[in-house]
Amino acid sequence: MYDLVIIGGGPTGLNVALAAEKAGIEYLVLEKGVLVNSIYHFPVNMTFFSTSQKLEIGETPFISHTDKPTRKEALEYYRRLQQAYELKVKLYEPVTRMERVGEEEAYEITTSKAVYQAAHVVVATGFYDTPRMLNVPGEDLPKVKHYYDDVHPYVGQRVLVVGAANSACDVALETYQKGATVTMAIRQHELYPKVKYWIKPNVENRITEGSIKAHFNTEVKAIYPDRVDLEGPDGVFTIPNDFVLAMTGYEPNYALLAALGLPISEDAAAMPLHNEETLETPLPGVYLAGVVCAGRRTSKLFIENTRDHGDIIIQQILARKGTSAK
Ligand SMILES: Cc1cc2nc3c(=O)[nH]c(=O)nc-3n(C[C@H](O)[C@H](O)[C@H](O)COP(=O)(O)OP(=O)(O)OC[C@H]3O[C@@H](n4cnc5c(N)ncnc54)[C@H](O)[C@@H]3O)c2cc1C
After folding, report:
1. Residues framing ligand 1 (Cβ under 6 A)
2. Rounded to two decimals, what is the model's pTM?
């Protein structure tokens, strides 16, 4: 029986673990993949938009060669953090369901390998596991990717980038710069206005000069092995194509949240219900932490602005246990 089980070993799960470690709470992190699994699956050459200082947790310095750290530096940081504090993390162990047990407020957490009991649970499962689908014929072809890792496979290829936010702009630029023929299909009449200021003008200039072809007010209708049907203001048209990079965003894994027994708001945000001050869900002793809190509004929360979640939750748990932080 643990005081606390933390589901998800991302930056947030580690942040909560560190706060628990410092408070002397007996905890365990259950992670379905590798340590900081989402970040491990980010594009290999990716640079964070936050400065390393704004990503630091537990007052542990995050050293980076430039002001904005790379994915590789972030992986090093989180590895060192876990090792330095000997954070208790079980890897490759996906949680599949959770149930309330007994008269007391305790929970049984089932993973692919074991069953655990805990008085408190933190759900820090992020949003990177479930891509937003295009829901068009041909989306299941192997040439359609919802995750982008490296530019190399796309060099010399005709690539359609779907989307207009940060990831789509990043991917369009990198594939163009390394020698792909890039077309963008953009549902709106412009790029997402909040694309980072050091990326947006670069993409706009490539579009203006015609080196990246952008179709605005345009949606993908169907994907075939050698072409794609798009629908724009003048109707349906076809472009030749080798790869579709659907950079249309991600959302929390709602099937998992249902299997954990967590209710969801019925509005467009589809937020897992929780008290925004205490982070407690309607299940007593079960908390949400990190970017999963925002539901489908995935651009609202980041590592940067959720770093206080660990301390908030641990204070709650200590109060429930009738003790105070060390
Ligand atoms: C490309 C990209 C760049 C970003 N750059 C920045 C940035 O510069 N600054 C910033 O502040 N934010 C950034 N973000 C946003 C945010 O910081 C990240 O999404 C961050 O990883 C969120 O941390 P998290 O711990 O809440 O979720 P995640 O990092 O997604 O961690 C969730 C963890 O839960 C695990 N998990 C899921 N399901 C289960 C299960 N059933 N059982 C066990 N484990 C499970 C996952 O494997 C994962 O390791 C970026 C996001 C993206 C996609």
Report:
1. 7-13, 30-33, 36-39, 42, 46, 48-50, 94-95, 124-126, 128-129, 167, 253, 256, 290-291, 302-304
2. 0.95
Q: Would you say the CATH fold of 133-246 matches that of 2-130+250-321? A: yes
Which residues in the chain belong to E strands, given as ranges? 2-7, 27-30, 89-90, 95-101, 106-111, 115-123, 130-131, 144-145, 158-162, 181-185, 213-215, 219-223, 227-232, 235-240, 243-246, 250-251, 286-288
Residue 91 tokens, joined: 């890897």
Residue whose CA lies nearest to ligand 1 atom number 16: 302
- Neighbour count for residue 80 (Cβ, 10 Å): 13
Give tens-digit pLDDT for 295-315: 999 999 999 999 999 999 999
Structural domain boundaries in the chain? 2-130+250-321, 133-246
Whether residue 168 contacts residue 161, with contact meaning beta carbons closer than 8 Å, is answered with: yes
Residues 242-289 have pLDDT tens digits of 999 999 999 999 999 999 999 999 999 999 999 999 999 999 999 999
Is there a contact between 12 and 289 (Cβ–Cβ < 8 Å)?
yes
pLDDT tens readout for residues 109-158: 999 999 999 999 999 999 999 999 999 999 999 999 999 999 999 999 99
> Considering the domain 2-130+250-321, what is its CATH architecture?
3-Layer(bba) Sandwich (3.50)
What's the pLDDT tens digit per position in 7-51?
999 999 999 999 999 999 999 999 999 999 999 999 999 999 999
Residue 290 alpha carbon to ligand 1 centre in Å:
8
Alpha-carbon distance values, 294 to 13, 100, 200, 274 (Å): 16, 24, 25, 10
Could you say which of 1.20.1250.20, 3.50.50.60, 3.40.50.2300, 3.10.20.30 is the CATH number of the domain covering 133-246? 3.50.50.60
